[in-house]
């Protein structure tokens, strides 16, 4: 009953609302969906999100890694030998974390499917529902305030705001959003490496002085500047969340050693899948570092994997699982759905994915 086939499907799924950040506007998600098939024809699904600007993975590089060395690594292996096969995938090639995540997640889905249980249950959870935040696309402050009101009416309670490039503007923008959203809404901001350490401290202190009551600030400085990240964490009271600075367990240990962040954002596409993510969660929790799970702009397949992990992650804050919410439709039939501010996983084997929709 060995692994018989590994297929890669390139998909492009349009968004229902453009996803605008300071550096780019996304109209569609480009991804590689990976299907791993056992001898009985059962399929496990995983996703490699192409994010040139974050992980350096492209559709072409993910497809090449999956259909080349990763396929060779898993073909003929026993799908129930999950730990060993995932470990072989991690060691098969350097880098290519999105491609490895796609294969690792497909292997986890297949293992759960073969046992006839939902993926969250394979990971140790009794729950199929997790809350998520939602991002407000960047735009004129008035438009963002209107969007904030709309999202709150739809049931979301945690709003993630991508910051622009001007500090004064950002404080004004946040002031308007806070005034519109009211005191009960949880507001978090993501600077996506936009500041120098000193500028970050100035900007965050200005936000604190303005009484904006921010839950956390994500990745204030450049990914590789751990000294700068530690400087910011030491000089503001708002909790600092490291995202682009944390890929591997080594990165995480370095952040812990320097006390460079209060929380870390774990994403499957950065660390290479569920197996390495679980190690990151264990290290973070042992050290008292808060964890939050997030994703790239990806579809219901990748979100199913990270949401499954979120059912057992004991995250320190509401996870960042809204990416597939932005899609006009799912590229697969079956799989997760959104219910207000919750991701709901199907009570079906694995991720409950039946196949591609077209
Ligand atoms: Mg981020």
Question: Your description of this structure?
Answer:
This protein has helices at residues 59-74, 82-92, 97-115, 119-122, 141-153, 167-181, 197-209, 226-235, 249-258, 268-271, 274-287, 300-310; strands at residues 3-20, 25-38, 43-49, 129-131, 134-136, 158-162, 186-190, 214-218, 240-242, 263-267, 290-294, 332-334, 337-339, 342-344, 353-356. A seven-stranded parallel sheet has the order 5-6-7-8-9-10-11. It is 39% helix and 24% strand. The protein is an alpha/beta fold and 358 residues long. It folds into two domains: 3-116, Enolase-like, N-terminal domain (Enolase-like, domain 1), CATH 3.30.390; 122-356, TIM Barrel. The chain starts with a strand and ends with a strand. The model has no long low-confidence stretch (mean pLDDT 95). Strand 2 and strand 3 (43-49) form a beta hairpin. It binds magnesium ion (MG). Magnesium ion binds next to loops. Magnesium ion binds at residues 190, 192, 218-219, 243, 265.
Keywords summarizing the entry:
alpha/beta, Enolase-like, domain 1, 7-stranded parallel sheet, single chain, binds magnesium ion, 3-stranded antiparallel sheet, 358 residues, 15 strands, 39% helix, TIM Barrel
């Amino acid at each position: 009953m060995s692994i018989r086939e590994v297929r890669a499907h390139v998909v492009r799924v349009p968004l229902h609302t453009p996803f605008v950040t300071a550096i780019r506007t996304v109209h569609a998600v480009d991804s590689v969906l990976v299907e791993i098939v056992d001898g009985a024809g059962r399929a496990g699904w995983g996703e490699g999100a192409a994010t040139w600007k974050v992980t350096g993975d492209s559709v072409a590089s993910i497809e090449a890694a999956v259909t080349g060395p990763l396929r060779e690594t898993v073909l003929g292996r026993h799908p129930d030998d999950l730990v060993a096969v995932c470990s072989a995938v991690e060691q098969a090639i350097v880098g290519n974390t999105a491609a490895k995540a796609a294969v690792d997640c497909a292997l986890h889905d297949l293992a759960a499917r073969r046992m006839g249980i939902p993926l969250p249950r394979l990971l140790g959870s009794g729950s199929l529902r997790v809350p998520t935040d939602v991002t407000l696309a960047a735009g004129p402050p008035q438009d963002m305030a209107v969007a904030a009101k709309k999202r709150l009416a739809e049931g979301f309670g945690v709003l993630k705001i991508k910051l622009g490039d001007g500090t004064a503007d950002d404080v004004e923008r946040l002031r308007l959003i806070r005034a519109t959203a009211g005191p009960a809404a949880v507001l978090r901001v993501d600077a996506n490496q936009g500041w120098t350490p000193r500028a970050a401290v100035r900007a965050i202190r200005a936000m604190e002085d303005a009484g904006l009551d921010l839950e956390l600030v994500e990745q204030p400085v450049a990914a590789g500047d751990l000294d700068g990240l530690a400087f910011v964490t030491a000089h503001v009271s708002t909790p600092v969340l490291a995202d682009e600075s944390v890929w591997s367990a080594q990165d995480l240990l370095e952040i812990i050693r320097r006390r460079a962040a209060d929380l870390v954002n774990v994403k499957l596409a950065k660390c290479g899948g569920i197996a390495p993510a679980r190690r990151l969660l264990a290290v973070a929790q042992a050290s008292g570092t808060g964890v939050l799970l997030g994703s790239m702009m990806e579809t219901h397949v990748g979100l199913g994997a990270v949401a499954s992990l979120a059912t057992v992650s004991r995250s320190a804050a509401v996870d960042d699982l809204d990416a597939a919410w932005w899609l006009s439709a799912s590229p697969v039939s079956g799989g997760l759905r959104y219910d207000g501010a919750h991701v709901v996983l199907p009570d079906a084997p694995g991720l409950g994915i039946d196949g591609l929709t077209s």
